[in-house]
Amino acid sequence: MVPTVVGEGLYVGVPCFLIRLGGCNLHCRWCDTPNARHGGREIPLSAIVDRALAAPQKWILLTGGEPLIHRSAFKLVSRLVEGGKRVLIETNGTRPIGRFLLENVSISMDVKTPSSGEAGKTVMGNLKLLRPTDAIKFVIAHRKDFDWAKNFVRTHPTSAPIFFQPVWGRLSARKLAVWIYEELSTVRLGFQLHKIIKLP
């Protein structure tokens, strides 16, 4: 639990208080937080809530791992919202999001591409629930990923803004930007600001 800025997606650059929950139900080949799958320590829910509510940042970033695999995730989000915070949930999209779509909660949902090794595990019903204040992210490793994601976007409409983001160190943002503006102007180029400026 640390102060930082939102590193990617619709709210990139916004100051936030980061809560990272351990554990994940996927094993993406290019995972950039494999340490979140193991280790960590148990902290009482009340202690997490108290510390987050005491933070000066208006936004709470809830991430993982995969935060929605935890039974207490909804209770945590509800208490943060009741305490006057806005919550941004980063999820891999393999768990239903419906109950989390509260006022002052935004979802940043991945759709896993073939290079991840986890494509096809998205809860497809989530796509119709997403709002303009939420976002969808495709992490792109190569041209095959791009073509797959391009087809997915064209065949699965959603109200949420869509980001294509390069796998860090494997695909240049410039190359991905060219593919986007030449072939798919309905999506935005994403990047990982927290890595560029070396924040958590």
Report on the architecture of this protein.
26% of the residues lie in helices and 20% in strands. With 200 residues, it is an alpha/beta fold. The chain has a single domain, classed as Alpha-Beta Barrel (TIM Barrel). An 8-stranded mixed β-sheet has the order 1-2-3-4-5-6-7-8, covered by helices on one side. α5 links the parallel β7 and β8. The mean pLDDT is 95.
Overall, the morphology is globular
Average the pLDDT over all residues and give the rounded result.
Answer: 95
Which bin fits the share of residues in helices?
25-40%
- Number of helices, where a helix is a run of at least 4 consecutive DSSP H or I residues: 6
CATH architecture descriptor = Alpha-Beta Barrel
Tally of discrete structural domains: 1
* Beginning-to-end CA distance, first to last residue: 10 Å
Which sequence of SSEs, written as H and E, runs from N to C?
A: EEHEHEEHEHEHEH
Give the oligomeric state: single chain
Strand order of the largest sheet: 1-2-3-4-5-6-7-8
Number-wise, the strands total 8
Return the structural class: alpha/beta
Could you describe the largest sheet, including whether it forms a barrel? 8 strands, mixed
Fold-level CATH name? TIM Barrel
Going by CATH, the homologous superfamily would be Aldolase class I
Radius of gyration: 16 Å
Which consecutive residue ranges, at least 5 long each, have pLDDT under 50?
none
